[in-house]
Amino acid sequence: MPEMKPSLEVNDNNLGNSFRFQRCGWPNDSDKWHFHPEYELHQIVRTSGKLFIGDNVLNFRPGSLFLIGPYTPHNFVSDARSGAVVPERDLILQFRKEWIEASANVLTELRLLRPAFDEAVFGVEYGGETQQAVYGLMNRIDSEEPLERLISFMRIIDHLKQCRRKTVLGTSRYFIDMRTASLRRFNKVVDYIREHIEEDVSMEEAADLVGMSYKMFSRWFIECTGIGFRRYVIKTRINKSCEYLFSTSRSIQEICYLVGFNNVSNYNRLFRQVIGVTPSEFRRKSQEAQEYEFPLEGFAAA
């Protein structure tokens, strides 16, 4: 399950290469609510489940392809049975914005690829033939020579730019802005929310925790997340309830109180407002998604 405290993931420079490629199994050390300064192109090879990204909760399945922007909190949670081990679940490319911008200044042609990155501030999901095309390139990139790797990378980004079946994930500035906030201070506040999720969460107490006045804290929190404190708490509770709906058989009424709501009708209303469906519809759709099998060659639902 994703923790509600987003932690900073520190990646090495992969021995000076322009980008970092990984094949990841599941579970792994990155299975937590986390963020990092790199862009991340993430393709699912095996299992279905839920992607928690910013203020969104999405289904993923074999073949699903996402570009996640810098400092955007995210976590991929597979629905595999308890204790299961998946040797290779993900193909991941990570690269820095600074490298893309510096390269575009030298190679004019690369400027044409910038729109693919600009729209990924909140994350983008790509569908259709792009999934298979990108998989073919990603799946061989770690066996290529350095120049071939770079060419494959540019081809991958071009596929993303040309994709017509894509969805920008979220409309709010929900990401960790390292320019306007102390990470340690922000994590203190998120820890406080997570630890008191079943109780009343007070903005006054959160402000005191980081040594700010109520008014200063309110402005600072919006700068960090793009939304107000109360709205953030509601979305945190809704996301936590999604985890319970997705992975347990607890009743909707029980989940409602577990995540700090006082009555079921208010919970249902806010859930629909944030997620777009009722809790019972969300649970049903989650169960249906687990039975889905990706139809294209190269992916497995196991």
TrEMBL record:
Gene Ontology MF, one: DNA-binding transcription factor activity
Domain of life assignment: Bacteria
Domain HTH araC/xylS-type: 187-285
InterPro entries reported for this sequence: AraC-bd, Homeodomain-like_sf, HTH-like, HTH_AraC, HTH_AraC-typ_CS, RmlC-like_jellyroll, Tscrpt_reg_AraC-type_HTH
Keyword set, alphabetical order: Activator, DNA-binding, Transcription, Transcription regulation
Organism: uncultured Pleomorphomonas sp
Protein name, UniProt field: AraC family transcriptional regulator
Pfam family, one: AraC_binding
